[in-house]
Amino acid sequence: MNIDDDPELINYVRGVDEEYRKIERLHHKLDEYLKKMEGRYLTPDEEVQKKNMQKDKLIKKDRMMQILRDYKVKMKSE
């Protein structure tokens, strides 16, 4: 099971970790913006913006996964 497939852990972390909630909100906003860009012609500037948003979204996802891993380790040691 992947850590992001553990709804119990995710819900727990959402409830106790402000950083996680903030990053998750930003991640979802980026996802919404990127979906709006799908299927239409993008100017060169928009293409650059899209690539930057994709990178930022990935960075946020990585941080969310790290926070979840940290909590999972912490919970096992308690």
3D structure, described in words:
- By secondary structure, the protein is an all-alpha fold.
- The protein has one domain (3-77).
- Helix content is 82%, strand content 0%.
- The chain is built from 3 helices and no strands.
- The chain has helices at residues 7-16, 18-37, 44-77.
- α2 (18-37) packs antiparallel against α3 (44-77).
- The model has no long low-confidence stretch (mean pLDDT 94).
Attribute tags:
78 residues; mainly alpha
Largest sheet: none
Can you count the helices?
A: 3
Structural class: mainly alpha
Residues in helix, %: over 70%
Report the strand count.
0
Radius of gyration: 15 Å
Helix/strand order: HHH
Q: What would a concise description of this structure say?
A:
The chain is mainly α and 78 residues long.
SSE layout and pairing:
Elements: H1 7-16, H2 18-37, H3 44-77
